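User: Please predict structures.

Assistant: First:
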Amino acid sequence: MRSAWLVLALVLAGCGERPSDPAPVAGGAELYAKHCASCHGANLEGQPNWRSRLSNGRLPAPPHDDSGHTWHHPPELLFAITKYGLVPPHAPKDYESDMPAYASVLSDDEIRAVLAHIESRWSNELRNARAEMLRNRGK
């Protein structure tokens, strides 16, 4: 069990290797399918025209695959947005979003599993670019 948590921690830290233990990712895939796929797509493709505002002024759900910007965000921000929704301090004060908070729906470990699943689907090139970005952010 300890090795599974270590693998998950390495995935969330943005290392450039795929997890060797598929258990956290498999659980995350099921949770993603249940809670996220209806907006972000079964294949992480997001909603059409995700960069263009809808008639209500909100943005469609972005993709979580290589074509999106999810990988630009550090793990702790992705965790916070998933747990609390897209609200301040992770969004401008009056920003309106359809991203719900999952704090009362998913445990912290389940949120981490979903994020591990998302990251496991990224290309090695993208994962390496993200790891480099995260290393440089600490400088």
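Second:
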Amino acid sequence: MATKVTGLGWTTFEVDDAGGPTLRDIRDALTDVQFSTPRAVQDVTGIDESANQRLLLLADCSFTMNGVFDTSANGAHAVFSTVPTTSVLREILLETNGKTLTVTGTVLTDYQITRAATGELTFSVPASNGDGSVPTWS
């Protein structure tokens, strides 16, 4: 029988700071996270086929981390403020409901800060696989 769960109560969401390899737990600053682990495909359909044929190719991974601006020591701002000035690969580790995804060589490509008209101060950080490592669930 399948066990269905909620997205509540994440055990871990850690990102290396630029000085790495030091994973920092930034769960308390995150409001939502999107992550994707797609595979590229090659269409190999011959003209004699009535349906597509494809081969699986390279694995990839991407994240978008959104949250509330957090200036605590080793918090989200400390981790992400170096994105514009450093070119280091970072590890991202997330765990929820007993399942862990580890991406060892991630590039963070932007640190977008928004001050809304109503006063909220939030951030968004996109990230992509950067070192050829296959994202691994365990």
